[in-house]
C-alpha cells in the first residue's frame, strides 16, 4: 500500500494528537530495530503460535545466507523485552514507559487499503511495572486515551471493552479494545491495549529487585493504534458523494474557491480571497485556496466534497462588493447547508467559521452514534443473534458459554465476539447460548 | 541499533525543523512500501551495482518461499519511480514533489552507533520535473535547506559542495553534499541531494506530455538526511565531560537542580523551583526539574553536563531568600561559566536565559568554525596532501586528475574527495597531482 499525501496528512493529525497525550502520560519515544532474531519470537509460546503464519523472513544479507533467519517485526514485544532485561535492575528503574512510531509487517493474503495491509504504520507502547495493579491501570489508561481520541477527534463512537479469551492478543493476559461500526455495519478493531502480565518477562528473564531486596519479574503492557484508523475514519463518515472528514483531523478544514468570469473581475476577487485566507490562517484554521484556472468552480465543488473538506467558501464579484462570503457545509447537502452573505469582517468571520467547524464535528459524532445505536440488537437467544447478524447488525447479549461455543458462532454466522463492553446493563443475566447465569453481555459482529 | 529517548528526542527536533521547511518549499509527506521487488532494483544499471552488496532480502513470507525475492528498501528511487510512472501523464502533473520519513536497511559489517548502522531512520525526498533546469534548481535548493539547518540549528559549519564522479550516488548525474568535520577531524557526509537526470525515468518509463504535445522523460531529484546527523551533532560538540548540545535542538535546554539540606528548607526551595520552571516553560523554553532524592546535587551536575544540557539553574535556600538563581553554562567550564544572583523576576529571568541560550548557540558554531578552519590545509603537491592527511587534517587543493588518480590517493592515504566546495578561491589553478590546469579545488579527508 502506498499512502498518498491526503491520507498521510490524516495519519499525521492522528500522530500529532496522540504524541502529546503519550508524553503527558509519562511515555518517551524511542526506536528499536525492525529485524528480530527468529529465536526471540520463539521464546513466548503463544506469541510464536499466533504470529508465525504471518511472518516475513530475511534469509540473505549482504550477499550471504544468514545463520539465523531474521523476522521483519510484526510487533516488538520480544525485542523490547530483550532490551528491557538489560535496562531494568531495581524498582528504581520502574515504571519504564516507552512508545515507538514504526512500520510493521504481517503477511496478509486478502488485503484492503488501510484496513488490512502487508505493511502498515503504527505506534506501539511498551511499559514495565513493579506490580500487576500498576500494569492493569496503565492498560486501562491507554485504552481510555484511545477512546477519547476516537470520540473527540475522529468523531467515531467506539465501544471500549475487553476481548474474549479466544480473541486475546497472542501473549497477553487481557486485551482491551475499541470497536467501531463502519458505514457498512462491519466492526473495525480500531485500537488495542494489552495487559501482558509476566508472560514476556518470564520468557526473557526481565527481573527487578523490589524495595525489600526480592527479585521479581516485571508486569507489562503494550498498546497500539495503526494507519487502519485512517480507514476507520473514511468508512465511518463517508456518503455517496465521497469522504466527510471530522474538522478536528481534516488536513484541510476550509477550502476557498474563487469565482470570476470576466478578466477584470479577477484581481478584486483574488485580493479578497487572499485576505480571507490570511484571516483564517492567522486564526489557526487549516485553509486552502484552489485558484487553478484549469478547472471550473463546479468541478472544484465536487472535488472537495469527494475529499470530505468540512467547509467550502465561495467568493465571487458580488461577494466582494458586499464584503461577504458564501459558506457551504459538507455534512448538510444542498441549499440547507449553504449560507449567503456571511461578513468578511475578521471579528465576525473567524468566530462564524470556528462555530460551524465545531457544529460539524459534533454533528458527525451524533449521526454516528445514532447509526450505531440503531444497528445494535439486544438478543436473548442464539436464534435472535443469527437473525440480527443475518440482517447485518450487531448483536448484544449475555454470554458465559465456552470457547468452543464462541468458535461455533463464528463458524455458523461469521460473527465474533468484538468485546465485553465496559458499560454493562444492570441486573441478573442468563447466557443466551446455554441458559446459565452470565456476568456480562458480549457484543457479536462481523468484522474486518 | 536501539535509539534511546534522549537521542530520539534530538531526531524529533531535526524532524520538526525539516518538516516545516519541506512543506514551505512545496513538498508533501507520503509513504511507500518498504519491500521492493528485486526486479525493480535491477532496472537501473549503476543503482543495482552500487546497492546489491548491501541488500537484505526477504525470501519467505507467510510460511512460503516467495517466487520473487523482496528487497528491504536501502533507498526508494525504484519503487517511487514505479508509482510516479502511474501518476504522471502530462506537464500539469509536474512538478511532483514528495518526501517520506522511513527506516532503511543497508547491510553493514563495521557498524558504529548513529554513523553506520544496518538499519537507520531518514527522510528521503523525491521529485519529478519537466526540465533539467528545474531539477537542478531543486537539488541545489534542498542542499541549501540542509546547509542552513546544519549552521543555524545544529551549529555544525558544514562545507557544501559537489561530489566527484567516483563518489556520486549510484544512479545520479550529480550529487551535492554537506561535509562536516567531527571532533576527531574525520569527515562526516551529513546530507546529500542528487540530480538524477533521466536515469530512473528512462529505466522505468516515467514520461509526460509537454505543452507542445511531445512525450518526454521527467527529470528527477532525491535528497536525504538520516539519524547519522544525530551522531554528527554528538561528535562535533562534545568534550571530555560529555555531550554539548546546541540549544536550538537540545531536548532539554535548561535543567533546574534544587538544593536543600535540612527538611524544613525543602518546601520553600521546591516552591521556588516550581515557580521558575513555570516561568521558563511559559516562555517556550524546554526545561526539566530533577527533584529526585536518590541522587546528590553534585551527581546531578555531572550527569547533565554529560548529557550536554546547555544551562543549569541551581536554587538553594539562600537563593530563595534573595529571590535569585545560580546559572551555569555547559560550554564555559568552571567559575567563568557561573553567574550568581540572577533575579527570579520573570521579566528579568526569561530574557536573561534566552540571551544565554542564544550566546551558547552562537558560541558553539564559532568554536566549530575555528576548529574546522585550523584543520584544513591548502596543498599544492601530492606530498603536501600526504603530510596533511598523515597529521589527521583535511587537505584542500586544485584537482583535475583522473578517477584512477583519485582511487590511488584513497589507496595510499585512506583519504577521499569529500567535495568540490561551492565556495572556490579565485584565480588560475594547477592540479596538485598532474600539474594540468584545474578549474576547482577539492577537499580530501579521511571519513566515517
UniProtKB/TrEMBL annotation, chains A, B:
<dbReference type="InterPro" id="IPR006195">
    <property type="entry name" value="aa-tRNA-synth_II"/>
</dbReference>
<dbReference type="GO" id="GO:0005739">
    <property type="term" value="C:mitochondrion"/>
</dbReference>
<keyword id="KW-0436">Ligase</keyword>
<keyword id="KW-0030">Aminoacyl-tRNA synthetase</keyword>
<protein>
    <recommendedName>
        <fullName>proline--tRNA ligase</fullName>
        <ecNumber>6.1.1.15</ecNumber>
    </recommendedName>
</protein>
<dbReference type="InterPro" id="IPR004499">
    <property type="entry name" value="Pro-tRNA-ligase_IIa_arc-type"/>
</dbReference>
<dbReference type="GO" id="GO:0004827">
    <property type="term" value="F:proline-tRNA ligase activity"/>
</dbReference>
<dbReference type="Pfam" id="PF00587">
    <property type="entry name" value="tRNA-synt_2b"/>
</dbReference>
<keyword id="KW-0067">ATP-binding</keyword>
<dbReference type="InterPro" id="IPR004154">
    <property type="entry name" value="Anticodon-bd"/>
</dbReference>
<feature type="domain" description="Aminoacyl-transfer RNA synthetases class-II family profile">
    <location>
        <begin position="1"/>
        <end position="246"/>
    </location>
</feature>
<dbReference type="GO" id="GO:0006433">
    <property type="term" value="P:prolyl-tRNA aminoacylation"/>
</dbReference>
<dbReference type="InterPro" id="IPR033721">
    <property type="entry name" value="ProRS_core_arch_euk"/>
</dbReference>
<dbReference type="InterPro" id="IPR016061">
    <property type="entry name" value="Pro-tRNA_ligase_II_C"/>
</dbReference>
<dbReference type="GO" id="GO:0005524">
    <property type="term" value="F:ATP binding"/>
</dbReference>
<dbReference type="Pfam" id="PF03129">
    <property type="entry name" value="HGTP_anticodon"/>
</dbReference>
<dbReference type="Pfam" id="PF09180">
    <property type="entry name" value="ProRS-C_1"/>
</dbReference>
<dbReference type="GO" id="GO:0017101">
    <property type="term" value="C:aminoacyl-tRNA synthetase multienzyme complex"/>
</dbReference>
<dbReference type="InterPro" id="IPR045864">
    <property type="entry name" value="aa-tRNA-synth_II/BPL/LPL"/>
</dbReference>
<dbReference type="InterPro" id="IPR036621">
    <property type="entry name" value="Anticodon-bd_dom_sf"/>
</dbReference>
<dbReference type="InterPro" id="IPR017449">
    <property type="entry name" value="Pro-tRNA_synth_II"/>
</dbReference>
<dbReference type="GO" id="GO:0009570">
    <property type="term" value="C:chloroplast stroma"/>
</dbReference>
<dbReference type="InterPro" id="IPR002314">
    <property type="entry name" value="aa-tRNA-synt_IIb"/>
</dbReference>
<keyword id="KW-0547">Nucleotide-binding</keyword>
<dbReference type="InterPro" id="IPR002316">
    <property type="entry name" value="Pro-tRNA-ligase_IIa"/>
</dbReference>
